[in-house]
Amino acid sequence: YPQDGHDVTALMKYADVAMFQAKKDGGNKYQFYLADMTVAANQRLALETDIRHALENDGFSVHYQPQVCLENGRIVGMEALVRWQHPQHGSLPPTMFIPVAEETGLIEPLGEWVMRTACKQAKKWHDTLGINITVSVNVSGHQINDRLVPAVRAVLADTGLDPRYLELEITESCIMDHTSGSINHLNRLRSLGVQLAIDDFGTGYSTMSYLKRLPVDKLKIDRSFVMDVPQDSNDMEIIKAILALAHALKMTVIAEGVETTEQCAFLAEHGCDVMQGYLFSRPCPAEEVELLLTADNRTSIAREALINSSLRGTK
Ligand code: C2E
Ligand code: MG
Ligand code: MG
User: Fold this and answer.
1) How do residues 23-50 score in pLDDT, each as one tens digit?
2) Ligand nearest to the CA of 201
3) pTM higher than 0.70, yes or no?
4) What is the pLDDT of residues 248-259, one digit of tens each?
5) Residue of the nearest CA to atom 33 in ligand 1?
6) Is the dihedral of CA 74, 80, 85, 90 positive or negative?
7) Which of 112, 108, 97, 114 lies closest to 48, judged by CA?
């Protein structure tokens, strides 16, 4: 008072906004109110309303990005990525609206919708094309609670997808957050028969002893390491170390964000199992990605990429 407000109602409201910001920053700090915060809070509120509306009115869609096995050049899985064509702002990237969905709890219905859509699609591919590929769904740390296992079980029962063809991707930073009792939840998920993958591996703070106790089948090497191959020798050493570690722990390794034939060649040479990235395909609507799944295309895109990266000698 007096610069921020002239009455108790306004001052309390702004104090609350400042407190919210302090909590968001991790707590254990003080925070004065700034006018920008109201703008940000209003934007968040508007986005929250729009997410709710989109959930009720079929406003979201799912795109799929192929995951290619290096052994035989075939598509073995598809990562499901949520897309949102906002009525006013156009196409919004998930990194813009997922955090709001997380803060507001809307990530639970949104995450479940993506999972249901992806499982239904995978089941359809299995039944109509006779190709048993896995579908990977991103799970936010905010979804890891007692409601997740029943939700996954219900989706599997409703769609009829065999659980081993559903993979849940959980980020490394979220798995390493011991406070959420995550191991317990992961074990329960695993007992449903689904696969678990650690997403964005290398960006969190895994301890080796913790990693070996995790009921996890796959590691996804974060794009930030793949990006600078072959220029950055440190990144290349890190990738080799991750591959050795994961294989010693009997985990499969997927490299994310593979864009060039050089990156593909390097990863193949060092025994990476599966790759995903623009080199093979961008994330696309189901109808488009389906073309890649049909017998000819399925092998040709991958084979072409592998041949281009002069892998014939190494594989
Ligand atoms: P992520 O799970 O690590 O997904 C990979 C991201 O990298 C995707 O971005 C994908 O489009 C992008 N990508 C794939 N290959 C390449 C490449 O070769 N080059 C480059 N530059 N990028 C590539 P997208 O779709 O924007 O998603 C960003 C993040 O948002 C995801 O990272 C994931 O953490 C989150 N996300 C997306 N969909 C969902 C969802 O349904 N639920 C949750 N909880 N999170 C989601
Ligand atoms: Mg992912
Ligand atoms: Mg990732």
Assistant:
1) 888 888 999 999 888 888 888 889 999 9
2) 3
3) yes
4) 999 999 999 999
5) 138
6) negative
7) 97
